[in-house]
Amino acid sequence: MQKFAFLILLFASACAHPSQSSHLAQHDTQWDVKTAPGLDAVLLIGALSGDKLQGGEYPDEIARYRAKLSDNALAALERIGTAFSEPGQGLAGPSFAFPLAAAPDLSVDGVYSVLSDPKPFYQNLERELSDERLSLLDDLRIVYGELREAGFRSDWNAEIAPIANERAAIFQSYLSNFDIIPVQERYLGRELENKIEVLLLHYNRPYGIRVHGQRFATFHGWDEADTLRIAVHEMFHPPFDRNNPDLRRAGARIAIDPLINNIIETADPSWGYSSLGSIVDEDSTQALDMVVSLKLGLDRDPGEYWRGQDDGMHLLAAAMYDAMVETGFAETGGVYEEWLMEALSGDTLSPEAVERRARKIVGDAAVEKWIPESR
Known about the structure:
The protein is mostly helical.
């Protein structure tokens, strides 16, 4: 889990880049903090299906609820766990939560109504489902329905709601002091909506998740500053158009770089970054996040952070951060996508430069562990 940092309100109003201030909106960020027990049930199912990281967070709850499930539901969990154990499939709980967070009613019954007839819901999202994912939704419905009948809602209302509701009021008061949208716009070079919804959950640990649009899921027990930091981080996702063919061409050298490919092939898949696209997205976001934090004079050490984050796999993020500082982008802001294309296609983020910059930030030993033996 990243160490989340404070954003200073005065910075948000003062940081608009001169070339952008004429067309980027200046507005107050509107925060809306609420609970979502139906989404909590979805994320619990991710833990029940064998998610490695979540398993360590909820061992007692996993044992408690698995004991209430039928053989049919346990078989459905097994199929879900098997499907998401494949490389590139992502993480079960967050993968289900991302679209379902768009449901108009995030109560236990509201989410169940979507799972009972998911096709119209997904069509409204303009999201086509493969036969495999439709079958997984059916498995999700089976398990969700049994949890619903086994008392999940009453358990949540009795054990979680009192704490989560109290924390929601505290979060609302705290976050309302921070106008972060102009900060994000400065580095993305485009306008964002001015509303951020924060869903306080219980079963999302260790993940802070951008679940839908500008909705975020966070744990009710985390520090308020941690949740602010999640919002700053997640608002950068994605900092570019994933379908931009020019960006793909610019990244052609990185795509065949032995160091980057060894990270993709050997990093723990439970971290969720097992493709080039996912790494470039996440590492770009982490680098932008670091730039904002240090721009504010916050106490974060880039080398220490990236040596420890996800077993040190985000060497590209360390290199991107160093390149942004060196080229002046960290100071001036701009359109990140344009900066990234230029950096990847030139000398700034060539494969050789990525390794050199990563060594500068995290040290030789932290890079050597990812160098392929065949090189």
